[in-house]
Design brief:
By secondary structure, the protein is an alpha/beta fold. Helices cover about 45% and strands about 15% of the residues. The chain is built from 48 helices and 41 strands. The strands form 11 sheets. A 7-stranded parallel β-sheet has the order 3-4-2-5-6-1-7, with helices on both faces. Strands 8-13-12-9-11-10 form a 6-stranded parallel β-sheet, sandwiched between helices. A hairpin with a 4-residue loop joins β16 and β17. α19 packs across α20. The longest helix is centred in the last third of the chain and has 34 residues. The relative contact order is 0.06. It comes from Carex littledalei. Probably involved in the RNA silencing pathway. May cleave double-stranded RNA to produce short 21-24 nucleotides (nt) RNAs which target the selective destruction of complementary RNAs. One of its GO terms (biological process) is ta-siRNA processing. GO terms for molecular function: ATP binding; helicase activity; metal ion binding; ribonuclease III activity; RNA binding.
């Protein structure tokens, strides 16, 4: 928080107006009436006036008002300071904005949201200028515009541009009623070295359209604010000894020449050579300055700091640098440091004897003077000192020097500099604020700063300011002096002895304040002069739709910004090239080859106007073709136009992870309606009778439904993986049958009993289910088949056992005994009709039953809690029979049951039953057969008196059949669901896709079945990218590859696909979990509630979470299903009907520049023979081989757009080839691996070299030439492995792979979008294509899978030195650490090499 204190140092009230001084109130009243510039000394309370003025406008700014107030400050440091003052002393909603927040990338919607939310914007002026130019903000919406340090409004500064381009233009258009009130603040209205104060003040007033307000004399302010005592401190004019200086200066000069000569050899024809040479020259000049003005020790310190600087530091000092450039700076600095070190005594203790250090040339006399001045304040309590310097390097080395001195011990010392192109000590806004806060709090006592702290820094306790370097003008002098705010503070100016000119200038600066005040008061009564016509008549281009504007002065930077957004690689940087013909007053602008406009010409009067005119014309043309949007901004790679068909604006919000869980309507009915339906559709579920179960052939089952399942399920066959092997199941529609209500109830009893018994194996549950069924039967008698009410939908079907092709009603009646028992009815005792022999009556827990009824029955024993299938009677085994325990002891059954269960067997002579355990049903669709638990071949002896009869009679074969029914009906349900989705797809596409293929497309890998959507997803992904690329290439003829690639990525992104899936309610169809029979309830006893949906064929049984990735995979799989069965044309129609906005373009070629005699650039005949293709337009072939570094105007375009198109076409061709050749024999994962191995850039690069295409590439990059040469020398055409060179540690030039893709794109366009022709021409270049036998896995992936499988921990550490990547891999396995280190030209290659080395090590250990 900023402290606000009066002249005595007391903290002021938060209510400024209560303690406002007379001159502040005068200034406030004037500012309310008219535009005003308040000229008052630092510390006189200008910010108080600004806050009071804001409060007077508050009623116009409070939300929901569309208006705002804007508080502009010249530096980022002041943003937080002034915002906090406004927040502390008003209730207005304040926001702070500066460049590092990424505001440059904000769109109109973001700015609108801020305007809706905040009332005061505190920001740097460039942000407002850019917003006004883009029309994200309008002058109309600003009610109050405050300019802090408004003396910066001059030339083409952002302050000046805001006023000239937007404020004064409105004044001229007679729309002044909507203009904001202007309020400026300054401690010096003149910010130049000129002496005509009257003229300079008039210029500022005219530009700001404001009148200056000031007090009559400095004495008015002196009663309120302290003024620092100014003292000139003279230092001796000592110079570094000539012999030392000459040797070091000559050494610097030689190092510079030798190093630049070395660079010229290493970087021949490199586009960055000139830039690196300029950096080295500037670095040399910096070291010379340090040597001359600061001394040899600080020059060496500067070299040392730059030699050990990080890439971030280097980037800050030189602007954006490439890795090679950064290394060059560090290497040169290291050479300079080593050279200086030879002349410096190693054991020297700098500062121990300052006089000796100065005499020896280690330090300049000026530094000795500074140290002595600071030492005078050693006894001052709570010292706060700012040392102002001119250069950034001075601030950095001076801080280092002062921190090393024992005289400065106990003082915290920091440096603070602005952020500009030549900035070494780059710090974020937060770091700068921390330093300022530490200075205020006393943790930092001395700050060495450039002019960044001259303006606005509010530290009332600052008691010493030192001008180490002289002020450039009166404004700088006054501003720096004003930082000394504490009463009794000093302002020291270091001046060289004998420099009378500088001493006079300091005296002139001291008198300048009163002179400026007198001139301001003279002009107070005169109106503002009109703004000069030269400032208002500047040429501009205006976008009518948005009002966005670009002027002659801003167009050059816009062109550079546009070029910087164009794709580039390590071999070239996209930048404009100007050709100026001074004699003809004619300028030509050559834009990069991937620009939408290649060349623009214009006329002008001089060099500046020529450059501005041609850039302004280029901006106009770029906007006309859509390369600049309606806000005159380069299209961001991630931007989405208002009329864009990609439609991602609300996709994230609309894409939900909660989806319905669909169930096919054909399997739903109400049991009340179903029971009285009378006629039922029948399907025979039959089994391949060559596959036998454990006890013989599996019995067929009849499926009775209320509705037809459709043609896709008749006939329909599939395999089940059962315990004894693979069992083929066939579902076949046969005929309709008629059933009475009684027969339906009997069949339902049977179905419910068998399935509940098998699935639950819980007697209590069986009793509960039986009770529910009996209750339903009682209620059913009160309903009739003609009832008009709408009962609840349930799963309704009947599974009827068959015998010899007919319904087995005997088996269906098998639950009768149990149901009679449950109904408290008499259990009928009779022989089975099939019984041909005399059989005895046996007492069971249910009732006395004949043994013929017990054979082939299912019983339950309460003492064990198990169900058993009885397959016979053990005539020789009874209660008194003996058997041997596992211990070897022989006991009778009677004593065994008594001792273990406490049960006394009473029917001692009754023969026991031979029973077998009944296994639960499994998921027989699983890819891997599971051994069935609970069922064994061994027989269990069961006392009849302990057995409750559940089913009798029922053959074991039929029981085996019903054990398969949950799985079979699950598959039927899934197929019915797929058929329902097929109807949806059919409506979109008007093409039939088999439901089996749809089922594959909706089945996730997690289901663990024999098929999943992975292969179709791979196919669909490939086609979708191809379709999107084809569409975007044709639609956006002027967009470069970067924008096209990102538009494609967005249009096929998971978010986008999920959004489309949600729109069409497709999430309800996908199957994401393994089927579990235990969770499948019996038909009619299903706990789910089924709700109707907008889709007639399906009902919803609630919601479930599905990840957006799964939804995206589903969409791609459906596209793959369509492609694999219906073909490409139908799939394009499918994409269009889905709402993707993607359509097939028959006409792809836009108007192309005519290339005269293309054979002059490449060998057309050789290339056409190589490709076995005759080009209709040979210029496409030239374009396909032209790299972006080839900036000759003869060839108008580079290959980047063709590469974008060819990449997608070739990827799809390869994917289709692999799918058609290997599917379905190979696993989906293998298809993905083969695709990755066949379509990577390394693969293409090797193919290009084998075909000799490296000789045909048009480029102008020495680095690319060097890399291709290295590749050929070390590698040549002999290598044929699938790693394609990475295992040799060679960096494969991406350009080589690019040309394969661009050639594919060229053939695709020239052949009229014929992919078959593309594949026919390109395939021979790619041979041999990777096969399952030759596939080599990525070692990084292989190591990762091994570590995951074995629970090993792995770690990679990467460092970069001299352009090479060093990767260390460590694997913790069984308490042992295995470590390897490898080097590569890039991180990717080095990581592969080190992963392979660790894998080899682990495999060797395993083998040992």
């Amino acid at each position: 928080m900023v402290e606000v204190r009066d002249a005595k140092g007391k903290e002021m009230s938060s209510d400024f107006e209560t303690y406002a001084r007379s001159y502040q109130l005068e200034a406030l009243e004037k500012a309310k009436r008219e535009n005003t510039i308040v000229y008052l000394e630092t510390g006189s309370g200008k910010t108080l006036i600004a806050v009071m003025l804001l409060k007077s406008y508050a009623h116009l700014l409070r939300k929901p008002s569309p208006f705002i107030g804007v508080f502009l400050v010249p530096t980022v440091v002041l943003v937080s300071q002034q915002a906090e003052v406004v927040q502390m002393h008003s209730d207005l909603k304040v926001t702070k904005l500066w460049g590092e927040m990424g505001v440059d990338d904000w769109d109109a919607a973001t700015w609108d949201s801020y305007v809706d939310q905040f009332e005061v914007f505190v920001m740097t002026p460039q942000i407002l200028y850019d917003c006004l130019r883009k029309t994200f903000l309008q002058m109309d919406c600003i009610k109050l515009l405050i300019f802090d340090e408004c003396h910066n409004a001059k030339g083409r500064s952002p302050y000046a541009c805001i006023m000239t381009e937007f404020y004064h233009r409105k004044v001229q258009s007679n729309r002044s009623t909507s203009l904001p009130r202007i309020f400026g603040m300054t401690a010096s209205p003149i910010n130049s070295s000129g002496s005509d104060y009257n003229k300079e003040i008039m210029r500022l007033e005219s530009l700001m359209n404001s009148k200056v307000y000031t007090v009559d004399s400095e004495s008015v302010l002196s009663q309120y604010i302290p003024f620092a005592k100014t003292r000139i401190v003279l230092y001796k004019n000592s110079v570094i000894p000539s012999h030392v200086y000459i040797r070091l200066d000559e050494k610097l000069r030689r190092l510079k020449l030798e190093y630049i000569s070395k660079l010229e050899k290493e970087m021949t024809d490199s586009p960055s050579l000139d830039s690196v040479k300029r950096k080295i020259s500037r670095l040399h000049d910096t070291f010379v300055y340090c040597l001359t003005d600061l001394g040899a020790w600080l020059a060496a310190k500067a070299a040392e700091l730059l030699s050990i600087s990080s890439i971030e530091t280097c980037s800050s000092f030189w602007g954006e640098v490439k890795e090679f450039s950064e290394n060059s700076v560090r290497k040169f600095s290291q050479l300079v440091y080593e050279a200086f070190s030879q002349y410096l005594t190693k054991d020297v203790s700098i500062g121990a004897d300052l006089r000796t250090d100065v005499q020896s040339g280690l330090l300049a006399a000026k530094l000795q003077c500074l140290v002595q001045c600071l030492a005078e304040y050693r006894e001052v309590k709570d010292l706060r000192c700012i040392v102002f310097v001119e250069r950034i390097i001075t601030a950095i080395v001076l801080k280092s020097f002062l921190s090393s001195l024992h005289q400065m011990s106990g003082w915290g010392i920091e440096f603070l500099v602005g952020r500009n192109f030549n900035f070494l000590g780059s710090r974020s806004i937060n770091e700068k604020n921390k330093i300022v806060d530490a200075f205020r709090g006393g943790e930092v006592n001395i700050i060495v700063a450039t002019q960044i702290l001259e303006e606005g820094l509010d530290v009332p306790s600052c008691n010493l300011v030192v001008r180490f370097d002289p002020a450039g003008n009166a404004c700088s002098f006054i501003q720096s002096r004003g930082r000394a705010r504490c009463p009794g503070s000093d302002f020291l100016v270091l001046v060289r002895e004998g420099d009378i000119l500088m001493q006079n200038k300091v005296q002139e600066f001291l008198n300048s304040g009163e002179k400026m005040r007198k001139e301001s008061l003279k002009l107070a009564s005169e109106p503002c002069e009109p703004l000069g016509s030269e400032l208002l008549e500047e040429c501009f281009y205006l976008v009518e739709k948005t009002g966005a504007i670009v002027t002659s002065s801003s167009c050059v930077s816009l062109i550079y910004k546009y070029c910087s957004k164009l794709p580039s690689d390590r071999y070239f940087k996209s930048s404009p090239r100007f050709v100026i013909d001074k004699a003809a007053n004619f300028a030509t602008l050559h834009l990069p080859k991937n620009s939408a406009v290649q060349m623009v010409c214009a006329r002008g009067k001089d060099n500046l106007s020529l450059k501005q005119n041609v850039c302004l014309e280029a901006c106009k043309k770029l906007h006309e073709v859509g390369a600049l949007n309606d806000y005159l901004l380069p299209h961001s790679d991630f931007s989405i136009d208002d009329d864009d068909d990609i439609g991602l604006k609300n996709a994230t919000e609309l894409c939900t992870e909660e989806h319905p869980d669909y169930f096919p309507a054909v399997l739903l009915d109400s049991w009340r309606t179903f029971t009285f339906r009378g006629i039922y559709c029948c399907y025979m579920i039959s089994f391949d009778q060559h596959s036998f179960g454990r006890y013989g052939p599996v019995g067929n089952v009849l499926l009775a439904l209320g509705s037809d399942l459709g043609s896709d399920l008749s006939p329909y066959s599939f395999n089940l993986e059962v315990g004894w092997g693979s069992l083929r199941v066939t579902l076949q529609r046969i005929y309709n049958i008629t059933l009475s209500a009684y027969q339906v109830m009997m069949a339902r009893r049977f179905q419910t009993s068998v399935l509940s018994l098998l699935i639950d194996q819980d007697f209590a549950k069986l009793e509960e289910v039986t009770g529910q069924l009996l209750s339903f039967e009682k209620k059913l008698s009160s309903f009739s088949s003609s009832s008009s009410s709408c009962p609840t939908k349930e799963v309704c079907y009947l599974l009827l056992p068959c015998k010899e092709g007919r319904i087995d009603w005997a088996a269906i009646s098998s639950p009768t005994v149990f149901f009679n028992k449950m109904s408290n009815k008499t259990v009928e005792v009779h022989h089975l009709s099939s019984c041909k022999v005399e059989c005895g009556l046996v007492l069971t827990k249910t009732a006395p039953l004949f043994t013929c009824m017990l054979k082939n029955s299912v019983v339950y024993t309460a003492h064990s809690g198990h169900f058993y299938f009885v397959d016979g009677v053990l005539e020789s085994v009874h209660a008194n029979s003996s058997f041997e325990l596992r211990t070897g002891e022989s006991v009778t059954y009677k004593s065994y049951y008594k001792s273990k269960y406490g049960i006394t067997l009473t029917c001692e002579s009754t023969p026991f039953l031979a029973g077998r355990h009944i296994a639960r049903p499994h998921n027989y669709l699983l890819q891997h057969t599971r051994k069935e638990k609970g069922e064994s071949n061994g027989s269990v002896e069961l006392p009849p008196e302990l057995c409750s009869v559940i089913l009798c009679p029922l053959s074991v074969n039929m029981l085996d059949s019903f054990k398969l029914m949950p799985t079979i009906m699950h598959r039927v349900q899934c197929m019915a669901l797929a058929s329902a989705l097929k109807e949806q797809v059919h409506c979109m596409q008007n093409v039939n896709i088999p439901s089996t293929k749809i089922l594959e497309a909706i089945t996730a890998k997690k289901c663990h079945e024999k098929f999943s959507y992975e292969s179709l997803e791979t196919l669909g992904d490939s086609f979708l990218k191809y379709a999107a690329s084809q569409h975007l290439f044709a639609k956006y003829e002027h967009h470069h590859e970067g924008i096209l690639s990102n538009k494609k990525d967005m249009s096929v992104s998971n978010t986008r696909l999920c959004y489309i899936g949600c729109l069409h309610n497709l999430g309800g169809y996908v199957r994401t979990e393994e089927f579990n029979p235990k969770l499948r309830a019996c038909p009619g006893l299903n706990p789910h509630m089924y709700a109707p949906t907008s889709i007639n064929e399906v009902y919803s049984r609630g919601t479930r979470p599905i990840k957006s990735k799964v939804m995206a995979d589903l969409m791609e799989a459906l596209i793959g299903a369509s492609l694999s069965t219906a073909g490409e044309a139908a799939t394009f129609l499918f994409l269009e009907r889905l709402g993707t906005g993607i359509r097939f373009h028959k006409r792809m070629a836009a108007e192309r520049p005519i290339l005269y005699r293309p054979e002059m650039f490449v060998n057309i005949n050789r290339l056409e023979k190589l490709l076995d293709y005759k080009f209709n337009d040979a210029s496409l072939l030239v374009e396909a081989l032209t790299h972006g570094s080839y900036q000759m105007s003869d060839v108008p375009r580079s290959y980047q757009r063709l590469e974008f198109l060819g990449d997608a076409v070739l990827d799809h061709c390869v994917t289709m080839h692999l799918y058609n050749k290997y599917y379905p024999a190979m696993t989906p994962g293998l298809l993905t691996d083969l695709r990755s191995a066949s379509t990577n850039n390394d693969c293409y690069a090797h193919a290009a070299v084998k075909a000799g295409l490296n000789r045909d590439i048009l480029h102008a990059s020495s680095e690319l030439h060097r890399q291709i040469t290295t590749y050929l020398q070390k590698f040549g055409n002999l290598f044929s492995g699938s790693s394609y060179g990475w295992d040799a540690g060679i960096a494969l030039p991406k350009v080589l792979g690019d040309v394969i893709e661009s050639l594919a794109g060229a053939i695709y366009l020239d052949s009229g979008c014929d992919k078959d022709t593309v594949w026919r021409c390109i395939r021979p270049l790619l041979e041999p294509i990777v096969s399952p036998e030759t596939l080599e896995y990525n070692p990084i992936r292989e190591l990762g899978e091994l570590c995951d499988r074995k629970s090993y921990t792995r770690n990679y550490k990467t460092t970069v030195e001299n352009g090479m990547s060093y990767v260390v891999a460590e694997v913790q396995a069984g308490g042992v650490t295995y470590s390897e280190k490898e080097t590569g030209p890039n991180k990717k290659t080095a990581k592969k090499l080190v992963a392979r080395a660790v894998l080899k090590h682990l495999k060797e250990i395993k083998a040992d």
